[in-house]
Automatic annotation (TrEMBL):
The gene is Cnga4_0. Residues 348-454 form the Cyclic nucleotide-binding domain. It comes from the Eukaryota. It comes from Crocuta crocuta (Spotted hyena). GO terms for cellular component: intracellular cyclic nucleotide activated cation channel complex; non-motile cilium membrane. It holds the Pfam family CLZ. This is Cyclic nucleotide-gated channel alpha-4. It catalyses: Li(+)(in) = Li(+)(out); Na(+)(in) = Na(+)(out); Rb(+)(in) = Rb(+)(out); Ca(2+)(in) = Ca(2+)(out). SMART domains: cNMP. One of its GO terms (molecular function) is protein-containing complex binding. The keyword Transport applies. Residues 544-556 have a biased composition (Acidic residues).
């Protein structure tokens, strides 16, 4: 029993740390909680950037609201400390996967410059108050080191906001305000150092009526700084070296600030024009083309009205180009969230696979028609179907005036013409005239796009053809006999194709056999030739040996030859 209890205690002890870990979750740097925390950190950082310099340069401001400043100072310090805690619990991406291990997060954070800056911004410099006094706010200048969090918050907001250009302009104006604010504080501090009212350039003597008030001091300094940094002029001439140096520094800062402002505004305007060009077609080229080709004024007016309608009502005709940089799957999800409900209204697409509908959604092309413009005419070849997104269209007679029916948002037409249904009495021809009564927004799906998608979904193609036959039967436009004849012809064609395939397979088999026999014969011939070569070599070997013997006999026969000749000399002739 004691061993079992030990096992149970060891098994039940690990969950306690897991609960502790759950109390401080790891934040996703791209998530909402982290984003809102960054926006919270904007306030203490901006407070220190604006107020500390102002308190250091305007003594009345520091002395008059000391308790308020102490409360705000240590509240911002508390937020700075919490920000470090958040940093220790903010994950990072490794190989595209969010790391939630707090050990790895901590070790990575402490090795970065951000950690050093965060710690330095919380150094307890306020301890020097005991020596220098409570009215020395310059001791807190190290709080400026947390400015990178401000820039990070601005970058995240710019990517999330629906009005990035307006936010860029607002951010630029905020930077300009901070620069002018700092410059006005330095101007007042320099005036106090040189002596108030000593000349026309410095701040007037506070003993004069109205100039002793804190609000007047700040506004006058801010106004004077604005005149310098905007290079408007109308400022008193400097009289001392310090004043000249201050003016020169401000002029250089003004030149750099002017260049920065112009560059930022140009970037904003360019981005706005680029966005407009991406969302809406460029009408300047079309207008120039019509003018060069001397298009009649009525048609030119219609084209201009069409472009104006797109601009005023924010209509987009190039959604594919706008979403082209997104990954294919993400682009499909965006298109599905926008257009899937519209596609499901079409009867032949109901009960189709979700993946099929997702691919079809990517093929939908938005189109806008002007008042009185024909979408299709009777007898035209049907190469696409249309889904009405917004507006009204009329089914009219050949005279273009008599209306048979009015089609509204959510309806569709032309779906039968893009499906090759056997026995369709109308073929692929349009059976009615469809005219737009006002400005109408339609979705167009071409036959080629549908065929491309259905090639990967043969079962869905069968289902859609069956629904198309049902619709044609209700409309009495399906020739059953013709359909049977086409089916029989198709079956006969398929049978012939199968026969040809079988004959082709037989020919391939025979050809393969012939090749095999040819290779076997070639091997046999090569073998026989090799045997003949060896035999001829064996025949030539005795002759070569005899020649070698003949070449060796004269050396032995020289002596024998002498003896032979002497012997022969003693013999009588024949």
């Amino acid at each position: 029993m004691s061993q079992d209890s030990k096992v149970k205690t060891t098994e039940s002890s690990p969950p306690a740390p897991s609960k502790a870990r759950k109390s401080l979750p790891v934040l996703d740097p791209s998530g909402d909680y982290y984003y809102w925390w960054l926006n919270t950190m904007v306030f203490p950082v901006m407070y220190n950037l604006i107020i500390i310099v102002c308190r250091a340069c305007f003594p009345d401001l520091q002395h008059g609201y000391l308790v308020v400043w102490l409360v705000l100072d240590y509240t911002s310090d508390l937020l700075y400390l919490l920000d470090i805690v958040v940093r220790f619990h903010t994950g990072f991406l490794d190989q595209g996967i969010l790391v939630v291990d707090k050990g790895r997060i901590s070790s990575r954070y402490v090795r970065t410059w951000s950690f050093l800056l965060d710690v330095a911004s919380l150094m307890p410099t306020d301890v020097a108050y005991m020596q220098l006094g409570m009215h020395t706010p310059t001791l807190r200048l190290n709080r400026f080191l947390r400015v990178p969090r401000l820039f990070e918050a601005f970058d995240r907001t710019e990517t999330r906001t629906a009005y990035p250009n307006a936010f860029r302009i607002t951010k630029l104006m905020l930077y300009i305000f901070v620069v002018i604010h700092w410059n006005s504080c330095l101007y007042f501090a320099l005036s106090r150092y040189l002596g108030f009212g000593r000349d026309a350039w410095v701040y007037p003597d506070p003993a004069q009526p109205g100039f002793e008030r804190l609000r007047r001091q700040y506004l006058y300094s801010f106004y004077f700084s604005t005149l310098i940094l905007t290079t408007v002029g109308d400022t008193p001439l400097p009289a001392r070296e310090e004043e000249y140096l201050f003016m020169v520094g401000d002029f250089l800062l003004a030149v750099m600030g002017f260049a920065t402002i112009m560059g930022s505004m140009s970037s904003v305007i360019y981005n706005m024009n680029t966005a407009d060009a991406a969302f809406y077609p460029d009408h300047a080229l079309v207008k120039k083309y019509m003018k060069q080709q001397q298009v009649n004024r009525r048609l030119e007016r219609r084209v201009i009205d069409w472009y104006q309608h797109l601009q005023i009502n924010k209509k987009m005709t190039n959604e594919v180009a706008i979403l082209q940089h997104l990954p294919e799957r993400l682009r499909a999800e965006v298109a599905v969230s926008v257009h899937l409900s519209t596609l499901r209204r079409v009867q032949i697409f109901q009960n189709c696979e979700a993946s099929l509908l997702e691919e079809l959604v990517l093929k939908l092309q938005p189109q806008t028609y002007s008042p009185g413009e024909y979408v299709c005419r009777k007898g035209d070849i049907g190469r696409e179907m249309y889904i009405i997104r917004e507006g009204q269209l009329a089914v009219v007679a050949d005279d273009g005036v008599t209306q048979y029916a009015v089609l509204g948002a959510g309806l569709y037409f032309g779906e039968i013409s893009i499906i090759n249904i056997k026995g369709n009495m109308s073929g692929n021809r349009r059976t009615a005239n469809i005219k737009s009564l006002g400005y109408s927004d339609l979705f167009c799906l071409s036959k080629e796009d549908l065929r491309e998608v259905l090639s990967e979904y043969p079962q869905a193609q069968v289902v859609m053809e069956e629904k198309g036959r049902e619709i044609l039967l209700k409309m009495n436009k399906l020739d059953v006999n013709a359909e049977a004849a086409e089916i029989a012809l198709q079956e006969a064609t398929e049978s012939r194709l199968r026969g040809l395939d079988q004959q082709l397979d037989d020919l391939q088999t025979k050809f393969a056999r012939l090749l095999a026999e040819l290779e076997s014969s070639a091997l046999k011939i090569a073998y026989r030739i090799e045997r003949l070569e060896w035999q001829t070599r064996e025949w030539s070997m005795p002759e070569e040996l005899a020649e070698a013997d003949d070449e060796g006999e004269p050396e032995e026969g020289t002596s024998q030859g002498g003896e032979g000749r002497s012997a022969q000399e003693g013999l009588p002739g024949p």
